[in-house]
Design a protein that fits this description.
Chain B: The chain crosses the membrane at residues 12-32, 44-64. The complex is a heterodimer of chains A (357) and B (70). By secondary structure, chain A is an alpha+beta fold. Chain A folds into 2 domains: 1-37; 40-353, no CATH class. Chain A is built from 8 helices and 21 strands. The longest helix of chain A has 35 residues, at 2-36. Chain B is mainly α and 70 residues long. Chain B has one domain (2-69). In chain B, 84% of the residues lie in helices and 0% in strands. Chain B starts with a helix and ends with a helix. The chains are: A alpha+beta (357), B mainly alpha (70).
Chain lengths: 357, 70
């Protein structure tokens, strides 16, 4: 009797094991077809022009609230739907100059290009990269802060891997930076790892499917705001002149620019990790932070650490981007930080570049 | 006809088990990387629907079998 039972259990176990393997294979097939095989998305995208924000930008002061109010009250319809390629986008955004902070940050810029191992200044761009190491032993953290001033918002751009919007398109940050003549580049939000979430790049709305995740929007007038998924309104963002929008998060500072302790992210994601984040001081002045992690020399940062860092830096708004192995910062064609296992390819990146008229 | 039906009834638990494995894997992956949206996408929703229908049919079959045994 027991022998028969044992045989039955063995036979059933075999069948269940086969089912489990088939199930896992199905997951593999799903992953490959949905995330790995390059698939170009349809080409009808909304292009956001900078027209509606011109008034706000021309009256811009250091008070960001004043600017956002100006943008909000704008009732000009400033979007159109058309088929574009990412190359077209670069051309159209280059043409739409609505902001000029060259006088405001005159002391940051130089008449000619002056470049060192950790800084770059020109008539339009100023970048200073600082490598900071805090604490010691197993808690040691190494991070890089790129302090950025731009004379024009179009010097702050984003790029898509293989110059194509879709799923499965990936490239290294170094390659994307080199293809786009970027001075500085970091990874973005890895938009292609999901079919949902707001994706606005260089003034083109590629995806408008909202999620619960926090959203970060950089406007043509140079202001940057973070929103919770529930309070974000894509139409309002388009009317206000959204230039870039990322969906990853969470936001790292409250409305007053103070550090926060409660984040819209699971506990697991809040633990020590390599990080990439963007900070905003005022129109034309931003910072990109890359934190090394999962390494003997740097343990990585929790979201609380990162939030405190941006408060210390004096940012008024900050947003966490894709991290982990994706965290890469390049300057002048060289990877600045120490990405985990050399980093990984990403679907998009943030670029600071010279824009020739 | 009865043979085919028997075959389908035999295959149903395997299909349910496979879908259960898929969803357990999706849930684990979702814990590590919710941005990848393994659980909430259109395909997953369709699979979830199929899983529910299969579970209903399987449960019905098991209940009927139990009644017959009693």
């Amino acid at each position: 009797m027991s022998q028969t039972t044992s045989k039955t259990v063995k036979a059933a176990g075999k069948k269940i094991a086969i089912d489990i393997i088939v199930g896992l294979l199905c997951v593999g097939v799903f992953y490959v077809t949905h995330y790995l095989i390059p698939s170009k998305a349809s080409g009808d995208y909304t292009i956001i022009s900078s027209a509606a924000t011109t008034t706000a930008a021309s009256t811009s002061t250091t008070n960001t609230n004043t600017q956002s109010t100006s943008a909000n009250t704008s009732d000009t319809s400033n979007s159109e739907t058309t088929e574009v390629s990412t190359t077209d986008v670069a051309t159209s955004t280059t043409a739409s100059k609505v902001t000029d902070w060259s006088e405001k940050f005159a002391d940051k810029f130089t008449d000619t290009v002056v470049q060192t191992d950790s800084s770059y200044t020109s008539p339009d761009v100023s970048i200073t990269i600082e490598n900071v190491t805090t604490e010691s032993g197993s808690s040691q953290i190494s991070y890089y802060v790129a302090d950025i001033y731009v004379a024009d918002i179009t010097c702050f751009q984003t790029a898509l891997a293989k110059d194509t919007y879709g799923t499965g398109y990936k490239d290294t940050i170094s390659n994307m930076a080199s293809d786009n003549n970027a001075i500085l580049a970091t990874n973005g939000d890895y938009y292609s790892y999901s079919n949902e979430g707001i994706v606005i790049r260089n003034g083109v709305v590629y995806r408008s499917a909202q999620t619960d995740a926090d959203v970060c929007v950089l406007y043509y007038d140079g202001t940057m705001k973070t929103f919770s998924g529930s309070e974000f309104d894509i139409d309002e963002a388009i009317n206000d002149g959204a230039y870039q929008a990322w969906t990853f998060g969470p936001m790292l500072l409250d409305d007053s620019g103070n550090a926060i302790t409660s984040f819209n992210a699971s506990k697991r994601l809040q633990s020590k990790n390599p990080r990439t984040a963007i900070g905003y001081y005022e129109p034309g002045h931003y910072c990109l932070v890359t934190v090394d992690g999962r390494d003997d020399d740097s343990a990585g940062m929790t979201l609380t650490n990162l939030s405190n860092l941006f408060e210390e830096l004096g940012c008024t708004s900050a947003y966490n981007l894709d991290g982990g192995k994706s965290s890469v910062m390049t300057y002048d064609g060289t990877v600045v930080n120490n990405p985990v296992n050399g980093g990984r390819q990403s679907s998009d990146c943030i670029l600071i570049k010279e824009v020739t008229e | 006809m009865k043979k085919i039906l028997n075959q389908i009834v035999k295959l149903l638990p395997h299909a349910t088990l496979i879908l259960a494995v898929i969803f357990i894997t999706f849930l684990i992956l979702d814990q590590y990387n919710p941005m990848m949206n393994f659980v909430n996408n259109d395909t997953s929703m369709k699979l979830l629907g199929a899983f529910c229908i299969l579970t209903l049919i399987n449960s019905g079959i098991v209940i009927v079998k139990n009644i017959n045994l009693e």
